[in-house]
Specification:
Blueprint: E1 16-24, E2 27-28, H1 31-45, H2 52-65, E3 70-78, E4 81-88, E5 96-100, E6 112-113, H3 116-127, E7 132-136, E8 142-145, E9 149-154, E10 157-160, H4 171-180, E11 183-184, E12 195-202, E13 206-213, E14 216-217, H5 222-233
Parallel strand pairs: 5-7, 5-13, 10-11
Antiparallel strand pairs: 1-2, 1-3, 1-6, 3-4, 7-8, 9-10, 9-12, 12-13, 13-14
Length: 241
């Protein structure tokens, strides 16, 4: 594994699919969901995924080799390629400030690398004093951010864009829908003034509240606290040892 050439972001040089998993105390969160997504993408894109026992043994070995109390486990799969890494992850403790990206972005249902374009989007947000950018599709529907799914409270109901809008089917998004009552429907950009509260949903952030969209301040009140608690209650680390 160490002989694999990596790019500046830590991905293998070339192309493939990857999964990023948060770990707590050496245990990954929602590993089964991540593996199912990798298998589905592998089948769709013609990428062979190693068998489950091989992957579990590789995870255990990597977690022992690079232990962190809170970590980012990344697995990359490509043609005759498998690379795994575990690095320290610094928790996001402040609510996120988001802005809108100025151009349409066509999303993908597969989590693929190289990931340079998404990192460029994130950098452009940081350069403007924001944490990330909200993306939209050709129908002027909100999709996702550069690195996370979105959930918004609109007219008293938590909603998230559908996969058909052009988004990655995120693991935390699935938990929010299946376990926490978040509804799926298109969200047109004309509805932005109606957004009361919001979350960035991702495997590392879990459920990060959104404080601002541009200059518009969102509420972080009881509905947000309740949804965050529900999502985190269903995003528990599991042992693989």
């Amino acid at each position: 594994m160490s002989a694999i050439e990596l790019d500046s972001h830590g991905f293998p040089v070339g192309s493939g699919i990857f999964e990023t998993i948060k770990t707590i105390g050496g245990s990954p969160i929602a590993l089964g969901r991540h593996m199912r997504r990798a298998l589905e993408s592998g089948l769709a894109l013609g990428i062979s995924i190693p068998d489950e026992e091989f992957i579990r043994e590789a995870i255990v070995a990597e977690l022992k080799r690079n232990p962190h109390e809170i970590g980012r486990l990344r697995m990359c799969f490509g043609d005759v390629l498998f690379h795994i890494s575990h690095e320290e992850y610094l928790e996001k403790t402040e609510p996120a400030r988001l802005n809108f990206h100025s151009q349409t972005v066509v999303g993908s249902i597969h989590k693929t690398f190289p990931y340079d374009f998404r990192f460029e989007l994130m950098k452009s947000a940081l350069d403007e004093g924001f944490d990330d950018l909200i993306l939209f599709n050709h129908q002027n529907e909100i999709t996702e951010t550069s690195v996370a799914n979105l959930a918004f409270l609109i007219s008293g109901e938590w909603v998230t864009p559908p996969i058909s809008a052009g988004i990655l089917p995120g693991v935390m998004r699935a938990i929010a829908i299946e376990e926490c009552g978040v509804k799926v429907r298109p969200i047109h950009i004309s509805e932005i003034p109606e957004i009361e509260s919001g979350f960035m949903l991702s495997s590392l952030r879990i459920a990060q509240p959104i404080s601002h969209i541009g200059d518009m301040k969102l509420k972080i009140g009881e509905p947000s606290h309740l949804l965050e608690a529900k999502i985190r209650a269903h995003a528990l680390p599991v042992s693989v040892g």
